[in-house]
Amino acid sequence: MSVCVIPARGGSKRIPGKNIRLFAGRPMISWSIEKAKKAGCFDRVIVSTDDHKVAEIAKSGGAEVPFLRSPNLADDFTPTKPVVADAIDQLDVSADTPVCCLYATAPFVQSDELSGAFEALLTHAPRFVVSVTTFPFPIQRALYRSSSGYVEMIDPEHIATRSQDLPETWHDAGQFYWALASEWKDASVGIFSADVYGFPIPRFRVQDIDTEEDWKRAEILAETIESRR
Q: Architecture of 3-134+170-228 per CATH?
């Protein structure tokens, strides 16, 4: 058995109603639900929400909403891990159950990436498998910018290093995380604490959606991807 948990609280201050707002003509959460159901690696696709409207839309998209999340796990400061651990408790799954946390605002996630990351969890047996992508510019040549507008290198020793001679660096793509249920429930470590396998996602399909500007950029990207198909 394997389970997909999609956290989707009702409140969002920067983009009100973000999880169910229409994105490229469909509720945002429906994109994640669809890709999870098509992945072929989940026995159940669960949405964890505190909001009745989110629950209705999630059910209409084919997900299960077997419980409503407690309000104390649905504020602006609640981390991901306790939300997934709560869902595991509510579902009463065994400690060795593979559980994927898939964000509701991941419209560019692909079904084969979800199933591929699942295979990586089984094959490599790390604590977590996380979606990652590359930085578009060497972070070793990053700059500080002061309030007065002046800049200086964070790492001056690389001022003369060619970009191609610097190692490639990666960051969390913010799409999904796989782990056994027991790891999700271990409150002593974070997702990136140790023994984490990075599953690569193409940079052009990674976009944080936290502001209106992000939203517009993501919709333009969605239109471009769709037109090229």
A: Alpha-Beta Complex (3.90)
